[in-house]
UniProtKB/TrEMBL annotation:
Belongs to the DNA repair enzymes AP/ExoA family. It comes from Alteraurantiacibacter aquimixticola. This is Exodeoxyribonuclease III. The gene is xth. The keyword Metal-binding applies. The active site is at residues 106, 147, 248. The lineage of its organism: Bacteria, Pseudomonadati, Pseudomonadota, Alphaproteobacteria, Sphingomonadales.
Amino acid sequence: MRIASFNINGIKARLPRLLEWLEETRPTVACLQEIKTMDEGFPAEEFEKIGYHAIWHGQKSFNGVAILADGVKPEEKQRGLPGDDSDEQSRYLEAEVNGVRICNLYLPNGNPQPGPKFDYKLAWMERLRNRIAGHLAAEIPTVVLGDFNVIPEDKDVWAVKTMQDDALMQPESRDAYARLLNDGWTDALGTLNPRGGVWTYWDYQAGAWQRDHGFRIDHLLLSPDCADRLAAAGVDKDHRGREKASDHAPVWVELRD
């Protein structure tokens, strides 16, 4: 079972690249972030043409997440992250697919920091921790994946000094991510690449892609049951270099049956 995550950075602008990736790699489940469309504008019929069924949680011009499944309709379990009734941002969608709970997230960026956006990021991470702790307690096979907007360690960025003031690698952001792992989640890419040097994002500016100046912010966290089934994990890096690509590359994990 291949479960993938792709921050598409605008589903309408990247639809040809997205369909291309789906047909070339054929993940069982594909989680999308930053679809940047309202619900009524989501192109579900385009995915149905190639055999994917979708659920989505959209927002005009910003954010938005979706879950696609090959040949089966995802069974929606949660729309929006619980814990703050005033939060109207579309950043979280949860579903069941083939006996695995899929938690798809687009975690707040948090810049500029310090400030209210950074406070929102940290509060959101604590709400996430509370939500998925219940899955651990209930021993539900779960994969929590998406754009976390956190660079976990120095080995996950091409140049520490360049990003040292960014919200993505502040001690508070890293500590919140580490607390998730300490609860019992396994970082699939981090576990299989202990030396680091694996990037999932390259900025459009300053020739970052051409110079391979990237960092790792797209993560795949596995519950103990899923970690026991971990067969492989990787980054579809070549898709970042294609025409009109997203600034993220897709990431994926394979679980044994």
